[in-house]
Amino acid sequence: MITNDGHKLAFYVTPGHLPAIVLDAGGGLDASYWKKVAPGIAQQTGSEVITYDRSGEGRSSDVPGPWKAQNAASDLAAGLTQLGVTKNVVLVSHSLAGEIATYFVNEHPHWISGSVLVDASLPEFYTDSETAKLVAANQQQIAALKKQPQTRATRQLLAEADNYGPVHNAYHKLSWPQSVPAIAIVSSQTPFTTSPADAQLWKQAQQEFVSAAPNRRLVVAQNSSHDIPIDRPDVVINAIEDMVRQVGS
Asked: What total of structural domains would you count in the chain?
C-alpha cells in the first residue's frame, strides 16, 4: 500500500529485472483484470511486473469528486517512485488507462522506455463533434445512474462522467511524445459494438496515432471484444515481449 495526496493505493509486484512492466487496466477495473497476462509475462520475460488498483477500485481508497486522468497519473507516479521504479518502464495501458498513459508520458517521458496501448482511449478519437456526440448519448445513462442507490461502482462511473465534454476537448489537444515508442493494439470489435460510425472513428484514431511517428506500429486483435486482455491475452503478451526486446535491459 502506498499513499498519495492523502489516499491509499494498492500495488502488486512480481520481482524481476528491468525493464519493469506496468499494467494499467481500463475504467471500472482493478489489478485482477490482468490475471491472464501478468503471470505469463513475468515468467516469459523475467521482468518485474507491477499491477495496481486505481483510486476507487479494488483495495484502493475512494476519492470524492470528479475523476481526472491527471490525478490518476499522479497516483501512478507516486506508486512507482515509492517502489523505486522511475526508469526503463514498459507501460501497458488498456482503454481508459490510455488517457492516464498520455498524461503520464508527457510528464515523465524519461521514465518510460516504451508502451503497449491496448484498445486505448487516444486523443485523436475525441474530435469536437465526436465528443459532443458522446456527451449527448451518455446523458440518459448518467441521469438513470443518479437515480439509483449509490454503490462504489456507480459513484466511480459518475466521477468519470463528470465534466466529460470539456475534459475530452482538452485531452484531444494532447500528443504522445515522439521519443517514446508504442505498439497500439486495436480490437476487431472496438468499444462501439452497436455503432459502426463510432467504431470506424476509433480504428481511424488508432491508425492516426501510429502514423504520427516511425517508432509506433499497429496490431489488430482479431476475434476480440474491447476486452483484449481477456479474449486474446496472447496478443497482449506477444506485443509486450516485442516491446521488451525493443527497449532492452
From this structure: 1
